[in-house]
Amino acid sequence: MSKNCRFAVAVHTCALLGMEDGQPLTSEWIAGSVNTNPVVIRRILSALAKAELVTSIRGSNGGSLLAKAPEHITLLDIQRAVDDDDTPALHNQPPNQKCPVGRGIQPVLRRVLDRAEAAREAVLATTLLAEVIGNIRACQ
Amino acid sequence: MSKNCRFAVAVHTCALLGMEDGQPLTSEWIAGSVNTNPVVIRRILSALAKAELVTSIRGSNGGSLLAKAPEHITLLDIQRAVDDDDTPALHNQPPNQKCPVGRGIQPVLRRVLDRAEAAREAVLATTLLAEVIGNIRACQ
DNA sequence: TCCTTTGTAATGGTTGTTATTACGGTTACA
DNA sequence: TGTAACCGTAATAACAACCATTACAAAGGA
Lengths: 140, 140
Hints:
homodimer; Arc Repressor Mutant, subunit A; 2 strands; DNA-binding; Rrf2 family transcriptional regulator (chains A, B)
């Protein structure tokens, strides 16, 4: 479980954009809904734009729009856009290579953790932004 | 993906204990294999003991032992023992409740993330410490 | 030209993690 | 009955990640 809230803010942002279809929203407006600073939103939007999930219009009357229909954006797309998935080192210092366990533990653990992470991502990959928007609408 | 290495150190420690069956290992010895400070190991062992996965013998000739056979310890047991699973708040500040999305986003997201986390834990729950030890032995 | 808006750099505060020192309690053994 | 070898845990410092905020350059409409 990641320790930052970029993913939550990114999904929140995309849901707003998806519900106001075609209407560009400013970072300040989005920040008002998320309850944070507009610059935080712009950083998230910048990451989403690099992944080609949103586009931005600069200047007066500008703002951001979804680049794809919510039916074509998965939560995994969003997660990959905003969370650097550089898998952190298992151990902080490399373990003692003179010990059989020290030598063998890392590849073994890595394999298991990769399988576990793949299972987690499979759930996100099958959840569409459109479903999230539908659920939000349903609980009003 | 968690950002600390407690889980890796805990599995490493349990694998050592499981391979030296019956022989108590000192925190200093384990620290030599993990390549860290003995106090770090003792903290991990303390958490593992609270979860009744290991026992410790104090005093001279003391050390730690597995409390169960490696066939009866899953990686999920170990993870739960050393990682506080207090699910962090999705948003840092609660979102704006006057906005429909701000009101609805958190329960919806929480549900999806709980499902994703359950899928991840299912993999850890079906991986036994005994398998890890077997894999380490196999790649010597 | 002026105003609005994005894009991004720089900075400070907060929090989580690891390493390390220190010290008290426990136990085997001479 | 000492003493040495252990564990258990508190305290602290160093370090990194993250977020909020200020600041400012660049873009674009009126």
